[in-house]
Amino acid sequence: MTSESLDSIFQRAIHNTPLFKAHQALQSDYVPDHLPFRNQQITAVGEVLAPILHQSRPSNLLIYGKTGTGKTVVTRHVTNRLDNTCKKQHVRSSFVYCNTRLSGTEYRTLAELANGVGLKIPFTGLALSEVLTRIQEHIKENALHLIFILDEIDSLVRTFGDDLLYGLTTSSEKVTPGFISLIGISNDLQFKEDLGARVLSRLSEEELVFPPYSAEELRSILTDRACVALLPNSYTSAAINLCAALSGSEHGDARRAVDLLRVAGEIAEREGVGQLEEKHVRIALQKIDQDRISEALRTLPLHAKLVLLSSIHSSRNQQSKSSSGLVYDNYADLCKKTGLEPLTQRRVSGLLTELDTLGLVTATVINYGRYGRTKRINSQVSLETASKVFSDDQAIRHLVV
DNA sequence: CGTCCACAGGAATGACGGGCGG
DNA sequence: CCGCCCGTCATTCCTGTGGACG
Question: Which residues of chain A between 272 and 311 are close to nucleic strand C, CB under 7 A?
Answer without folding.
Answer: 301, 303
